[in-house]
Amino acid sequence: MTKLKITIADMVFDARLESEKAPQTSAVFAARLPYESKVVHVRWSGEGVWIPLGDLDFGVGYENHTSHPAPGQILLYPGGISETEILLAYGGVQFASKMGQLAGNHFITLTSNLDLLPEIGRRTLWQGAQDIRFEAA
User: Fold this and answer.
1) Which of 60, 19, 53, 26 is nearest to 38 (CA)?
2) Can you give the pTM of this predicted structure?
3) What is residue 1's predicted lDDT score, i.e. its pLDDT?
4) 9 phi and psi, to 5 degrees?
5) CB atoms near residue 98 (< 10 Å)
6) Distance between CA atoms of 57 and 79, rounded to whole angstroms?
7) Which pairing describes strands 130-136 and 3-8: parallel, antiparallel, or unpaired?
8) Cα–Cα distance between 12 and 17 in angstroms, integer?
9) Are 45 and 96 in contact (CB under 8 A)?
10) Cα–Cα distance between 37 and 18 in angstroms, integer?
11) Quick count: other Cβ atoms within 10 Å of Cβ 34?
């Protein structure tokens, strides 16, 4: 199991790669660490934030995929009917796009400070994009 540190704005979370359940997605993402971007509030999915990735191809298909991630679960949508993206659920989510319901690969789970998740949602909704950094712990 690979442990991660994820920083969103000034909030720090411990996390783990779901290497057994999503081995290809986990390996491809781990090879990109450290990874920095911005999260913005989702448009159709509910209580989540996402990293839009356009037509970036991670070279993976579906594995350990879900449309209903629990708070603290991070999904990679590998592309197809909608753009490639990474989604973090901070509350109730039914993963979707303007094309309809999606399923993404659950490949990271936050393991600490889950009580801070609603603040991520509040900040991205009312203050806009927030910095995010994924790194090995």
Assistant:
1) 53
2) 0.96
3) 59
4) 55, -120
5) 8
6) 7
7) antiparallel
8) 16
9) yes
10) 21
11) 10
